[in-house]
Amino acid sequence: MTTRHARPAVATMFRLQFEPAQESWVLLYPEGMVRLNTPAAEILRRCDGCRSVDEIVTELELAFAQPALRDDVCAFLAQAKQRGWLQ
Amino acid sequence: MPAAPRPTIKPPMWLLAELTYRCPLHCVFCSNPVDYTRHQDELDTSTWKRILGEARALGAVQLGFSGGEPLLREDLEELVAHARGLGFYTNLITSGVGLGERRAQALKSAGLDHIQLSFQDSTRELNDFISSTRTFELKSRVAAIIKAQGYPMVLNCVMHRFNLPHVGRIIDMAGRMGADYLELANTQYYGWAWHNRAALMPTVEELRDAEAIVMAHRERLDGRMKVLWVSPDYADAKPKPCMAGWGSLFMVVAPDGKALPCHSARMLPDIDFPDLRGTPVRDAWYDSTAFNRYRGQGWMKDACGDCDEREKDFGGCRCQAYLVTGDAAATDPVCPKSDHRGRIDAMLAEAQAERSQQALCSAPAQPLRFVPGASRRAGLLYRCDENSRAIAAAQSAELS
What we know:
The complex is a heterodimer of chains A (about 90) and B (about 400).
Chain A: E1 15-19, E2 24-29, E3 32-35, H1 38-44, H2 53-63, H3 70-82
Antiparallel strand pairs in A: 1-2, 2-3
Chain B: E1 14-18, H1 45-58, E2 62-66, H2 76-86, E3 89-94, H3 101-110, E4 114-119, H4 124-131, H5 136-148, E5 153-159, H6 167-177, E6 181-186, H7 191-195, H8 197-200, H9 204-221, E7 226-230, H10 233-236, E8 250-253, E9 259-260, H11 281-287, H12 289-292, H13 302-305, H14 310-313, H15 318-325, H16 341-360, H17 374-378, H18 385-399
Parallel strand pairs in B: 1-2, 1-8, 2-3, 3-4, 4-5, 5-6, 6-7
Antiparallel strand pairs in B: 8-9
Helix pairs in contact in B: 1-2, 2-3
Protein backbone atom coordinates (compact mmCIF):
# COMPACT_ATOMS: atom_id res chain seq x y z
CA MET A 1 0.00 0.00 0.00
CA THR A 2 1.09 3.53 -0.70
CA THR A 3 0.83 5.58 2.45
CA ARG A 4 0.39 9.34 2.46
CA HIS A 5 3.74 9.96 4.08
CA ALA A 6 5.78 7.59 1.91
CA ARG A 7 8.41 9.28 -0.27
CA PRO A 8 8.50 7.17 -3.44
CA ALA A 9 11.55 7.21 -5.72
CA VAL A 10 12.20 5.71 -9.14
CA ALA A 11 13.98 2.38 -8.57
CA THR A 12 17.73 2.29 -9.26
CA MET A 13 17.14 -0.21 -12.05
CA PHE A 14 15.28 2.48 -14.03
CA ARG A 15 16.12 5.85 -15.47
CA LEU A 16 13.46 8.41 -16.27
CA GLN A 17 14.14 10.86 -19.07
CA PHE A 18 12.50 12.93 -21.77
CA GLU A 19 13.05 11.71 -25.33
CA PRO A 20 12.74 14.54 -27.85
CA ALA A 21 12.55 12.10 -30.79
CA GLN A 22 9.47 10.47 -29.26
CA GLU A 23 8.15 13.64 -27.69
CA SER A 24 7.54 11.73 -24.49
CA TRP A 25 8.99 10.67 -21.18
CA VAL A 26 10.37 7.16 -21.02
CA LEU A 27 11.60 4.75 -18.37
CA LEU A 28 14.82 3.07 -19.41
CA TYR A 29 16.09 -0.19 -17.96
CA PRO A 30 18.55 -2.91 -19.05
CA GLU A 31 17.89 -3.41 -22.76
CA GLY A 32 14.37 -2.04 -22.56
CA MET A 33 12.16 1.02 -22.47
CA VAL A 34 8.66 1.94 -21.34
CA ARG A 35 7.05 4.91 -23.06
CA LEU A 36 4.96 6.85 -20.55
CA ASN A 37 1.70 8.68 -21.13
CA THR A 38 1.42 12.21 -19.79
CA PRO A 39 -0.25 11.48 -16.41
CA ALA A 40 2.23 8.65 -15.68
CA ALA A 41 5.16 10.92 -16.55
CA GLU A 42 3.84 13.82 -14.45
CA ILE A 43 3.57 11.56 -11.42
CA LEU A 44 6.88 9.71 -11.86
CA ARG A 45 8.82 12.94 -12.41
CA ARG A 46 7.83 13.94 -8.90
CA CYS A 47 8.88 10.62 -7.36
CA ASP A 48 12.30 11.85 -6.28
CA GLY A 49 12.53 10.33 -2.81
CA CYS A 50 12.03 13.80 -1.26
CA ARG A 51 8.38 14.58 -1.94
CA SER A 52 5.76 12.69 0.06
CA VAL A 53 2.67 11.22 -1.60
CA ASP A 54 0.67 14.06 -0.03
CA GLU A 55 2.96 16.64 -1.58
CA ILE A 56 2.85 14.97 -4.98
CA VAL A 57 -0.94 14.95 -4.94
CA THR A 58 -1.15 18.60 -3.91
CA GLU A 59 1.32 19.66 -6.57
CA LEU A 60 -0.53 17.83 -9.32
CA GLU A 61 -3.90 19.19 -8.24
CA LEU A 62 -2.47 22.70 -8.43
CA ALA A 63 -0.56 22.19 -11.67
CA PHE A 64 -3.55 20.78 -13.54
CA ALA A 65 -6.22 22.75 -11.70
CA GLN A 66 -8.06 19.57 -10.86
CA PRO A 67 -9.27 18.67 -7.38
CA ALA A 68 -9.46 15.15 -5.97
CA LEU A 69 -6.61 13.46 -7.83
CA ARG A 70 -5.56 11.42 -4.81
CA ASP A 71 -7.26 8.16 -5.77
CA ASP A 72 -5.87 8.24 -9.30
CA VAL A 73 -2.36 9.05 -8.12
CA CYS A 74 -2.38 6.36 -5.45
CA ALA A 75 -3.72 3.76 -7.86
CA PHE A 76 -0.94 4.59 -10.30
CA LEU A 77 1.73 4.52 -7.58
CA ALA A 78 0.57 1.11 -6.44
CA GLN A 79 0.72 -0.19 -9.98
CA ALA A 80 4.14 1.35 -10.60
CA LYS A 81 5.44 -0.21 -7.41
CA GLN A 82 4.13 -3.59 -8.46
CA ARG A 83 5.99 -3.29 -11.76
CA GLY A 84 9.18 -2.51 -9.88
CA TRP A 85 9.43 1.08 -11.16
CA LEU A 86 9.40 2.54 -7.64
CA GLN A 87 11.23 1.76 -4.45
CA MET B 1 20.55 18.40 -47.79
CA PRO B 2 19.69 14.83 -46.89
CA ALA B 3 16.36 13.57 -48.19
CA ALA B 4 13.53 13.68 -45.66
CA PRO B 5 12.92 10.25 -44.14
CA ARG B 6 10.01 8.32 -45.57
CA PRO B 7 7.22 8.64 -43.05
CA THR B 8 6.69 4.88 -42.68
CA ILE B 9 10.25 4.28 -41.50
CA LYS B 10 10.64 4.75 -37.76
CA PRO B 11 13.97 5.86 -36.35
CA PRO B 12 16.38 3.30 -34.90
CA MET B 13 15.83 2.81 -31.16
CA TRP B 14 18.60 0.34 -30.41
CA LEU B 15 22.23 0.65 -31.39
CA LEU B 16 24.57 -2.25 -30.79
CA ALA B 17 28.19 -1.14 -30.99
CA GLU B 18 30.37 -4.16 -31.61
CA LEU B 19 33.60 -2.48 -30.64
CA THR B 20 35.88 -5.36 -31.54
CA TYR B 21 35.83 -8.94 -32.80
CA ARG B 22 38.77 -9.72 -30.52
CA CYS B 23 37.82 -11.96 -27.60
CA PRO B 24 39.70 -13.90 -24.94
CA LEU B 25 37.01 -16.60 -25.04
CA HIS B 26 36.51 -19.20 -27.77
CA CYS B 27 32.84 -20.12 -27.37
CA VAL B 28 31.58 -22.68 -29.83
CA PHE B 29 28.27 -20.81 -30.29
CA CYS B 30 29.74 -17.33 -30.81
CA SER B 31 27.50 -15.08 -32.92
CA ASN B 32 30.41 -13.26 -34.57
CA PRO B 33 30.96 -14.08 -38.24
CA VAL B 34 33.05 -17.23 -38.75
CA ASP B 35 35.37 -15.22 -41.03
CA TYR B 36 35.73 -12.36 -38.50
CA THR B 37 39.49 -12.32 -39.04
CA ARG B 38 38.77 -10.65 -42.41
CA HIS B 39 37.16 -7.64 -40.71
CA GLN B 40 39.55 -6.61 -37.97
CA ASP B 41 40.32 -3.04 -38.99
CA GLU B 42 38.60 -1.38 -36.02
CA LEU B 43 37.05 2.08 -35.95
CA ASP B 44 38.94 4.67 -33.91
CA THR B 45 37.55 6.56 -30.93
CA SER B 46 36.55 9.71 -32.78
CA THR B 47 34.66 7.79 -35.49
CA TRP B 48 32.75 5.87 -32.82
CA LYS B 49 31.87 9.15 -31.11
CA ARG B 50 30.56 10.59 -34.37
CA ILE B 51 28.46 7.47 -35.02
CA LEU B 52 27.01 7.53 -31.48
CA GLY B 53 26.14 11.21 -31.86
CA GLU B 54 24.43 10.69 -35.22
CA ALA B 55 22.43 7.70 -33.97
CA ARG B 56 21.34 9.55 -30.86
CA ALA B 57 20.22 12.53 -32.95
CA LEU B 58 17.97 10.17 -34.95
CA GLY B 59 16.35 8.97 -31.72
CA ALA B 60 18.35 5.90 -30.66
CA VAL B 61 18.16 5.54 -26.89
CA GLN B 62 19.43 2.06 -25.96
CA LEU B 63 23.10 1.44 -26.60
CA GLY B 64 24.90 -1.86 -26.16
CA PHE B 65 28.67 -2.06 -26.06
CA SER B 66 29.46 -5.51 -27.26
CA GLY B 67 32.00 -7.47 -29.27
CA GLY B 68 34.00 -9.76 -29.11
CA GLU B 69 34.99 -8.48 -25.70
CA PRO B 70 34.41 -4.72 -25.47
CA LEU B 71 36.68 -4.43 -22.41
CA LEU B 72 39.61 -5.05 -24.75
CA ARG B 73 39.08 -1.51 -26.07
CA GLU B 74 41.08 0.91 -23.93
CA ASP B 75 38.76 3.74 -24.93
CA LEU B 76 35.66 2.02 -23.51
CA GLU B 77 35.39 4.43 -20.55
CA GLU B 78 35.69 7.39 -22.92
CA LEU B 79 32.99 6.01 -25.21
CA VAL B 80 30.67 5.25 -22.27
CA ALA B 81 31.10 8.78 -20.93
CA HIS B 82 30.40 10.23 -24.37
CA ALA B 83 27.31 8.05 -24.84
CA ARG B 84 25.98 8.86 -21.38
CA GLY B 85 26.47 12.55 -22.08
CA LEU B 86 24.35 12.15 -25.22
CA GLY B 87 21.55 10.61 -23.13
CA PHE B 88 21.90 6.95 -24.11
CA TYR B 89 21.04 4.18 -21.67
CA THR B 90 24.33 2.29 -21.75
CA ASN B 91 24.61 -1.50 -21.52
CA LEU B 92 27.92 -3.38 -21.34
CA ILE B 93 27.71 -6.91 -22.73
CA THR B 94 30.76 -8.76 -21.48
CA SER B 95 32.43 -12.06 -20.69
CA GLY B 96 33.78 -10.40 -17.56
CA VAL B 97 37.40 -10.89 -18.57
CA GLY B 98 39.13 -7.61 -17.76
CA LEU B 99 36.49 -6.31 -15.36
CA GLY B 100 38.40 -5.79 -12.13
CA GLU B 101 37.18 -3.59 -9.31
CA ARG B 102 39.00 -0.53 -10.57
CA ARG B 103 37.67 -0.79 -14.14
CA ALA B 104 34.13 -1.42 -12.90
CA GLN B 105 34.45 1.73 -10.79
CA ALA B 106 35.85 3.77 -13.68
CA LEU B 107 32.97 2.67 -15.91
CA LYS B 108 30.50 3.56 -13.19
CA SER B 109 32.01 7.03 -12.94
CA ALA B 110 31.76 7.33 -16.73
CA GLY B 111 28.01 6.68 -16.38
CA LEU B 112 27.59 3.03 -17.36
CA ASP B 113 24.00 2.02 -16.55
CA HIS B 114 24.00 -1.78 -16.67
CA ILE B 115 26.19 -4.84 -17.12
CA GLN B 116 25.22 -8.09 -18.79
CA LEU B 117 27.64 -10.86 -17.84
CA SER B 118 27.85 -14.14 -19.71
CA PHE B 119 28.20 -17.55 -18.12
CA GLN B 120 28.47 -20.77 -20.06
CA ASP B 121 27.26 -23.09 -17.31
CA SER B 122 26.85 -23.59 -13.56
CA THR B 123 29.85 -25.91 -13.46
CA ARG B 124 33.45 -24.93 -13.90
CA GLU B 125 34.10 -27.95 -16.12
CA LEU B 126 31.50 -27.17 -18.75
CA ASN B 127 31.91 -23.38 -18.55
CA ASP B 128 35.60 -23.78 -19.24
CA PHE B 129 35.12 -26.48 -21.86
CA ILE B 130 32.56 -24.56 -23.95
CA SER B 131 34.62 -21.33 -23.86
CA SER B 132 37.97 -23.14 -24.00
CA THR B 133 39.27 -20.91 -21.21
CA ARG B 134 39.61 -21.11 -17.45
CA THR B 135 37.12 -18.39 -16.66
CA PHE B 136 34.51 -19.82 -14.30
CA GLU B 137 36.01 -18.52 -11.03
CA LEU B 138 36.84 -15.22 -12.65
CA LYS B 139 33.23 -14.75 -13.78
CA SER B 140 32.00 -15.54 -10.27
CA ARG B 141 34.29 -12.86 -8.85
CA VAL B 142 33.17 -10.37 -11.51
CA ALA B 143 29.51 -10.99 -10.67
CA ALA B 144 30.27 -10.06 -7.04
CA ILE B 145 32.06 -6.87 -8.15
CA ILE B 146 29.13 -5.84 -10.37
CA LYS B 147 26.66 -6.28 -7.52
CA ALA B 148 28.91 -4.60 -4.93
CA GLN B 149 29.05 -1.50 -7.12
CA GLY B 150 25.29 -1.30 -7.42
CA TYR B 151 24.89 -2.04 -11.13
CA PRO B 152 21.75 -3.75 -12.37
CA MET B 153 23.06 -7.17 -13.45
CA VAL B 154 21.77 -9.46 -16.16
CA LEU B 155 23.29 -12.91 -16.44
CA ASN B 156 23.19 -14.50 -19.84
CA CYS B 157 23.70 -18.18 -20.49
CA VAL B 158 23.52 -19.66 -23.98
CA MET B 159 21.74 -23.02 -23.76
CA HIS B 160 22.44 -26.17 -25.79
CA ARG B 161 22.43 -29.92 -25.38
CA PHE B 162 25.36 -29.92 -22.96
CA ASN B 163 24.01 -27.50 -20.35
CA LEU B 164 20.24 -27.93 -20.69
CA PRO B 165 20.29 -30.70 -18.05
CA HIS B 166 21.84 -28.13 -15.65
CA VAL B 167 19.19 -25.46 -16.13
CA GLY B 168 17.89 -25.66 -12.55
CA ARG B 169 21.40 -25.25 -11.17
CA ILE B 170 22.05 -22.33 -13.51
CA ILE B 171 18.95 -20.58 -12.16
CA ASP B 172 20.07 -21.26 -8.57
CA MET B 173 23.52 -19.88 -9.34
CA ALA B 174 22.07 -16.68 -10.84
CA GLY B 175 19.85 -16.30 -7.75
CA ARG B 176 22.81 -16.69 -5.39
CA MET B 177 24.75 -14.08 -7.36
CA GLY B 178 21.91 -11.60 -7.05
CA ALA B 179 21.13 -11.26 -10.76
CA ASP B 180 18.19 -9.01 -11.58
CA TYR B 181 17.47 -10.90 -14.79
CA LEU B 182 18.61 -14.23 -16.13
CA GLU B 183 18.51 -14.80 -19.86
CA LEU B 184 18.47 -18.46 -20.81
CA ALA B 185 19.30 -17.94 -24.45
CA ASN B 186 18.66 -21.12 -26.37
CA THR B 187 21.25 -21.35 -29.11
CA GLN B 188 20.37 -19.54 -32.30
CA TYR B 189 22.11 -21.23 -35.19
CA TYR B 190 24.23 -18.59 -36.90
CA GLY B 191 27.96 -17.97 -37.15
CA TRP B 192 29.94 -20.46 -35.07
CA ALA B 193 26.78 -22.03 -33.70
CA TRP B 194 25.62 -22.86 -37.24
CA HIS B 195 29.00 -24.44 -37.88
CA ASN B 196 28.67 -26.48 -34.66
CA ARG B 197 24.94 -27.16 -34.94
CA ALA B 198 25.11 -30.94 -35.07
CA ALA B 199 27.07 -31.07 -31.81
CA LEU B 200 25.02 -28.40 -30.00
CA MET B 201 21.50 -29.41 -31.08
CA PRO B 202 19.29 -30.66 -28.24
CA THR B 203 16.37 -32.99 -28.81
CA VAL B 204 12.83 -31.67 -28.47
CA GLU B 205 12.44 -33.75 -25.32
CA GLU B 206 15.56 -32.27 -23.72
CA LEU B 207 14.19 -28.78 -24.41
CA ARG B 208 10.76 -29.59 -22.99
CA ASP B 209 12.28 -31.06 -19.82
CA ALA B 210 14.39 -27.94 -19.32
CA GLU B 211 11.47 -25.62 -20.03
CA ALA B 212 9.34 -27.38 -17.39
CA ILE B 213 12.10 -26.77 -14.83
CA VAL B 214 12.28 -23.10 -15.84
CA MET B 215 8.50 -22.72 -15.39
CA ALA B 216 8.65 -24.29 -11.92
CA HIS B 217 11.43 -21.93 -10.86
CA ARG B 218 9.58 -18.92 -12.24
CA GLU B 219 6.62 -19.77 -10.07
CA ARG B 220 8.83 -20.21 -7.02
CA LEU B 221 10.69 -16.94 -7.66
CA ASP B 222 7.44 -15.00 -8.13
CA GLY B 223 9.13 -12.15 -10.03
CA ARG B 224 12.09 -11.73 -7.62
CA MET B 225 14.50 -12.54 -10.44
CA LYS B 226 13.12 -12.41 -13.96
CA VAL B 227 13.98 -15.51 -15.95
CA LEU B 228 13.79 -15.17 -19.70
CA TRP B 229 13.58 -18.36 -21.75
CA VAL B 230 14.45 -17.51 -25.34
CA SER B 231 12.24 -19.67 -27.53
CA PRO B 232 14.14 -22.53 -29.16
CA ASP B 233 12.55 -21.78 -32.52
CA TYR B 234 13.53 -25.03 -34.27
CA ALA B 235 11.62 -27.05 -31.67
CA ASP B 236 8.83 -24.53 -31.04
CA ALA B 237 8.20 -24.31 -34.80
CA LYS B 238 7.38 -20.63 -34.46
CA PRO B 239 9.36 -17.99 -36.35
CA LYS B 240 10.82 -15.37 -34.04
CA PRO B 241 9.99 -11.71 -34.75
CA CYS B 242 13.65 -11.27 -35.60
CA MET B 243 14.88 -7.80 -34.54
CA ALA B 244 11.19 -6.79 -34.58
CA GLY B 245 11.61 -6.68 -38.34
CA TRP B 246 14.55 -5.88 -40.63
CA GLY B 247 15.56 -2.23 -40.28
CA SER B 248 12.69 -1.62 -37.89
CA LEU B 249 14.39 -0.48 -34.68
CA PHE B 250 17.77 -2.16 -34.46
CA MET B 251 21.15 -1.27 -35.93
CA VAL B 252 24.38 -3.14 -35.33
CA VAL B 253 27.65 -1.40 -36.05
CA ALA B 254 30.41 -3.93 -36.66
CA PRO B 255 33.97 -3.28 -35.46
CA ASP B 256 35.03 -2.16 -38.96
CA GLY B 257 32.13 0.28 -39.31
CA LYS B 258 29.67 -1.74 -41.37
CA ALA B 259 26.06 -0.95 -40.44
CA LEU B 260 23.97 -4.11 -40.20
CA PRO B 261 20.31 -4.86 -39.38
CA CYS B 262 21.37 -7.74 -37.07
CA HIS B 263 24.42 -9.55 -35.69
CA SER B 264 24.79 -12.02 -38.50
CA ALA B 265 23.49 -10.28 -41.64
CA ARG B 266 26.93 -9.60 -43.05
CA MET B 267 27.21 -13.21 -44.19
CA LEU B 268 24.22 -12.74 -46.54
CA PRO B 269 25.44 -12.63 -50.15
CA ASP B 270 24.77 -9.80 -52.62
CA ILE B 271 24.03 -7.12 -50.04
CA ASP B 272 26.27 -4.09 -49.89
CA PHE B 273 26.04 -2.97 -46.27
CA PRO B 274 26.76 0.72 -45.70
CA ASP B 275 30.15 1.63 -44.30
CA LEU B 276 29.75 4.24 -41.57
CA ARG B 277 33.31 5.46 -42.06
CA GLY B 278 31.97 7.37 -45.04
CA THR B 279 28.19 7.20 -44.70
CA PRO B 280 26.15 9.13 -42.12
CA VAL B 281 23.98 6.94 -39.89
CA ARG B 282 20.87 8.71 -41.21
CA ASP B 283 21.62 7.77 -44.82
CA ALA B 284 22.49 4.19 -43.86
CA TRP B 285 19.25 3.76 -41.91
CA TYR B 286 16.75 5.49 -44.19
CA ASP B 287 18.20 5.32 -47.68
CA SER B 288 20.58 2.39 -48.07
CA THR B 289 19.53 -0.50 -50.29
CA ALA B 290 20.66 -2.88 -47.54
CA PHE B 291 18.37 -1.51 -44.81
CA ASN B 292 15.41 -1.27 -47.21
CA ARG B 293 15.90 -4.73 -48.66
CA TYR B 294 13.61 -6.64 -46.28
CA ARG B 295 11.79 -3.72 -44.67
CA GLY B 296 8.03 -3.96 -44.40
CA GLN B 297 6.21 -6.71 -46.28
CA GLY B 298 6.82 -6.01 -49.97
CA TRP B 299 9.59 -8.61 -50.23
CA MET B 300 7.50 -11.44 -48.77
CA LYS B 301 6.52 -14.31 -50.95
CA ASP B 302 4.88 -17.74 -50.85
CA ALA B 303 3.78 -18.67 -47.32
CA CYS B 304 4.29 -15.22 -45.73
CA GLY B 305 2.48 -13.02 -48.25
CA ASP B 306 -1.05 -13.70 -47.04
CA CYS B 307 -0.37 -15.11 -43.57
CA ASP B 308 -2.05 -13.50 -40.55
CA GLU B 309 1.11 -13.91 -38.50
CA ARG B 310 3.18 -11.59 -40.71
CA GLU B 311 2.27 -8.57 -38.57
CA LYS B 312 3.67 -10.41 -35.52
CA ASP B 313 6.69 -12.33 -36.74
CA PHE B 314 7.61 -10.13 -39.75
CA GLY B 315 8.36 -13.27 -41.73
CA GLY B 316 10.91 -14.48 -39.17
CA CYS B 317 14.63 -14.41 -39.73
CA ARG B 318 16.33 -13.67 -43.07
CA CYS B 319 19.64 -15.15 -42.02
CA GLN B 320 17.99 -18.39 -40.97
CA ALA B 321 16.10 -18.50 -44.27
CA TYR B 322 19.37 -18.10 -46.15
CA LEU B 323 21.36 -20.63 -44.11
CA VAL B 324 18.74 -23.37 -44.31
CA THR B 325 17.17 -22.77 -47.75
CA GLY B 326 19.80 -20.78 -49.65
CA ASP B 327 17.27 -17.98 -50.25
CA ALA B 328 17.24 -15.04 -47.81
CA ALA B 329 13.75 -13.98 -48.99
CA ALA B 330 12.17 -17.36 -48.22
CA THR B 331 9.75 -17.90 -45.37
CA ASP B 332 11.65 -18.68 -42.16
CA PRO B 333 12.12 -22.46 -42.42
CA VAL B 334 11.15 -23.10 -38.79
CA CYS B 335 7.58 -22.15 -39.77
CA PRO B 336 5.31 -25.15 -40.39
CA LYS B 337 4.04 -23.32 -43.49
CA SER B 338 7.52 -23.25 -45.02
CA ASP B 339 8.23 -25.70 -47.84
CA HIS B 340 11.57 -26.27 -46.15
CA ARG B 341 10.33 -27.15 -42.64
CA GLY B 342 11.47 -30.72 -43.37
CA ARG B 343 15.10 -29.61 -43.19
CA ILE B 344 14.61 -28.36 -39.62
CA ASP B 345 12.78 -31.55 -38.65
CA ALA B 346 15.63 -33.57 -40.13
CA MET B 347 18.15 -31.77 -37.90
CA LEU B 348 16.02 -32.42 -34.82
CA ALA B 349 15.55 -36.06 -35.87
CA GLU B 350 19.30 -36.42 -36.22
CA ALA B 351 19.79 -35.28 -32.61
CA GLN B 352 17.13 -37.76 -31.52
CA ALA B 353 18.69 -40.59 -33.48
CA GLU B 354 22.07 -39.85 -31.94
CA ARG B 355 20.65 -40.02 -28.40
CA SER B 356 18.87 -43.29 -29.17
CA GLN B 357 22.11 -44.70 -30.52
CA GLN B 358 23.90 -43.60 -27.37
CA ALA B 359 21.30 -45.26 -25.19
CA LEU B 360 21.83 -48.50 -27.06
CA CYS B 361 25.58 -48.29 -26.49
CA SER B 362 24.84 -47.41 -22.85
CA ALA B 363 27.04 -44.34 -23.09
CA PRO B 364 26.78 -41.92 -20.15
CA ALA B 365 23.94 -39.40 -20.25
CA GLN B 366 26.48 -36.57 -20.03
CA PRO B 367 28.56 -37.32 -23.07
CA LEU B 368 31.48 -34.99 -22.49
CA ARG B 369 34.68 -36.21 -20.94
CA PHE B 370 37.13 -33.53 -20.08
CA VAL B 371 40.16 -35.11 -21.58
CA PRO B 372 42.41 -34.02 -24.42
CA GLY B 373 40.61 -34.33 -27.71
CA ALA B 374 37.15 -33.97 -26.13
CA SER B 375 36.18 -31.13 -28.46
CA ARG B 376 37.14 -33.08 -31.54
CA ARG B 377 35.23 -36.11 -30.33
CA ALA B 378 32.18 -33.93 -29.69
CA GLY B 379 32.59 -32.47 -33.18
CA LEU B 380 33.13 -28.91 -31.95
CA LEU B 381 35.06 -26.15 -33.66
CA TYR B 382 36.20 -23.39 -31.29
CA ARG B 383 35.95 -19.75 -32.24
CA CYS B 384 39.54 -18.60 -32.59
CA ASP B 385 41.71 -16.73 -35.08
CA GLU B 386 43.26 -19.88 -36.46
CA ASN B 387 39.90 -21.53 -37.18
CA SER B 388 38.47 -18.28 -38.54
CA ARG B 389 41.34 -17.90 -40.99
CA ALA B 390 40.95 -21.52 -42.08
CA ILE B 391 37.22 -21.02 -42.73
CA ALA B 392 37.86 -17.73 -44.57
CA ALA B 393 40.49 -19.44 -46.75
CA ALA B 394 38.09 -22.30 -47.52
CA GLN B 395 35.37 -19.78 -48.45
CA SER B 396 37.75 -17.94 -50.79
CA ALA B 397 38.80 -21.22 -52.44
CA GLU B 398 35.13 -22.10 -52.98
CA LEU B 399 34.44 -18.76 -54.65
CA SER B 400 37.45 -18.79 -56.97
